[in-house]
UniProtKB/TrEMBL annotation:
Pfam families assigned to the protein according to its UniProt record, in alphabetical order: ADH_Fe_C, Fe-ADH
Keywords: NAD, Oxidoreductase
Transmembrane region(s): none
GO MF terms, alphabetically ordered: alcohol dehydrogenase (NAD+) activity; metal ion binding
Family: Belongs to the iron-containing alcohol dehydrogenase family.
The UniProt record lists the keyword NAD: yes
EC number: 1.-.-.-, 1.1.1.1
InterPro entries: ADH_Fe/GldA, ADH_Fe_C, ADH_Fe_CS, Alcohol_dehydrogenase_Fe
Needed cofactors: Fe cation
Protein name (record): Alcohol dehydrogenase
């Protein structure tokens, strides 16, 4: 087994009501002024006001950037950075799902390293730690609040840049399921399927290890038990908490074992057509795993078992097929579109999408390494 390195924020708070405790603990860091990075919806819902009041109670001033797009852009990073510098903020608080977290990481990385965000595309390109980031999560899916991954859309090249850097790891992650209770059905489904994709891709990854395996399989089980419930009844507090833990476990898995072709391809769809990341993952997941059977049948059988399928009498091949069926069933039950055609993806773009997917950092650890033609076929199958 190769050497494994494990990345995670030094402090992580999970559980109902942990937001208050987390914000109060921030004064121990000696911060005086925070840039809150969020989106306009959370600002309108009053969540930002709640956080800024908690900060004020701890003697920390704050200023808000709420311009984050669903697929955060280079322009979002630049705008947030200008606000941070104008107000001399000494820390960044990301509030929301993956989009604000990624935008905040981008801002904080450039704030301390200089240059522009595109300079850091790839693996560990920065020289020093970012400005401290405290990530307050409101969705159960991306795990961006605790990872070293930062995905920013380059609107000129129409691609999502994957910045994988230990220096973008937040210093504190907060998963308070009370903040997730009002999450709409579609977002709950998409982010939940994103978490499932993280767990599956990490488990079949060529960089998997015993720690990531344990996290991935437990995440799969908890998602299988809770996602349908929480999509159909968003105020189920127990199911929300289970999903908060599950997405965090999936994050621990992929933050250290990385991902595969599902994410490499989904990043292209998101960058090219501005589509929701979780939905792209959910549509692609079964098709890529069919392709991965040639190298990972036994592992996919393990996932089927974690999803509650009795695989005792099955061969690895049969178990893998059962896993793929179970993934399809879950996607259908939570209302994920049947194919990419419904999302407006066009066949004439496949070659460009496939070429860019193979350049994505996530492609490196897919258990089967294929050609541009192979990726084109996967896109076609997912239509």
């Amino acid at each position: 087994m190769a050497v494994s390195t494990f990345f995670i924020p030094p402090v992580n708070k999970i559980g109902s009501g942990c937001l208050t405790e987390a914000v109060a603990s921030m004064k121990d860091f000696g911060f005086t002024k925070a840039l809150i990075v969020t989106d306009s919806v959370l600002n309108q819902l009053g969540v930002v006001k709640k956080v800024s009041q908690l900060l004020a109670d701890s003697g920390i001033a704050s200023v808000t950037y709420d311009g984050t797009a669903p697929n955060p852009t280079v322009e979002n990073v630049d705008a947030g950075l200008a606000l941070l510098r104008d107000n001399q903020c000494d820390c960044v608080i990301s509030l929301g799902g993956g989009s604000p977290h990624d935008c905040a990481k981008g801002i904080a990385l450039v704030a301390s390293n200089g240059g522009k965000i595109a300079d850091y595309e790839g693996l560990d390109r920065s020289a020093k730690p970012q400005l401290p980031v405290i990530a307050i999560n409101t969705t159960a899916g991306t795990a961006s609040e605790m990872t070293r991954f930062c995905i920013i859309t380059d609107t000129v090249r129409h691609i999502k840049m994957a910045i994988v850097d230990k220096n973008v790891t937040p210093i504190l992650s907060v998963n308070d399921p009370d903040l997730m209770l009002g999450m709409p059905k579609g977002l709950t489904a998409a982010t939940g399927m994103d978490a499932l994709t993280h767990a599956v891709e990490a488990y079949v990854s060529s960089a998997a290890n015993p720690i990531t395996d344990a996290c991935a399989l437990k995440a799969v089980t908890m998602i299988s038990e809770s996602l349908r419930t929480v999509v159909h009844n968003g105020s189920d507090a127990k199911a929300r908490e289970n999903m908060a833990y599950a997405q965090f476990l999936a994050g621990m898995a992929f933050n250290n074992a990385s991902l595969g072709y599902v994410h490499a391809m989904a990043h292209q769809l998101g960058g090219f057509y501005n589509l929701p990341h979780g939905v792209c993952n959910a549509v692609l997941l079964p098709h890529v795993q069919v392709y991965n059977i040639q190298a990972a049948a036994g592992r996919l059988k393990d996932i089927a078992q974690a999803m509650g399928v009795d695989v005792s009498a099955m061969s690895d091949e049969q178990g893998a097929q059962a896993c793929i069926e179970e993934i399809r069933k879950m996607a259908k039950d939570v209302g994920i579109p049947a194919g990419l055609k419904e999302l407006g993806v066009k066949e004439e773009d496949f070659r460009t999408l496939a070429e860019n997917a193979l350049k994505d950092a996530c492609a490196i650890t897919n258990p089967v390494q294929g050609s541009v033609e192979d990726i084109i076929v996967l896109f076609r199958n997912a239509m």
